[in-house]
Structure prediction request, 150 residues.
Amino acid sequence: MLFLTTACRSIPEGVEPKIIRGEIVQANTQLLSPGLLDYPAEVVFSLDPKMPAEDLKKFATFAYRLKNTMPIDPDKKIIARAVTNEGYHPDYFLKVPVSLVGNDETYIAHVWINRGKLSEHYLKPGSSLTFQVYIVNGAPYTMRLLGDTP
Prediction:
């Protein structure tokens, strides 16, 4: 099975990954029960090592609640548009506005979830995901799913 969580984007030589934790914003419902096929999901992660895991979980919930809404606040509107558009866009990284998370290193990303990397081959409620993120020119370039953490 293919290991990449995004399109087959080659990793530039010499670029070392950062290991980060990600939280599910939304996922294809097929991933919530046992099955054979892999599907996409949308996650939030931060490159800021000081961002508490609980804050990331809270933001994932907040972002999902903006789905199908039309906020007046321009920063919330950016997130609402991102989560409302359910199309899968490989190597899509949206920088979350600082006003919503308190740092400029938090991103929403589309990822392809390889069931073989999940402990029970499906997403369990409350699970976090661990990724390798490759940074090129100061921004996320591509990601690889390592697994889930209950």
Observations:
- The CA atoms of residues 15 and 134 lie 7 Å apart.
- Residues 53-65 form the longest helix (13 residues).
- Residues 17-149 form one domain.
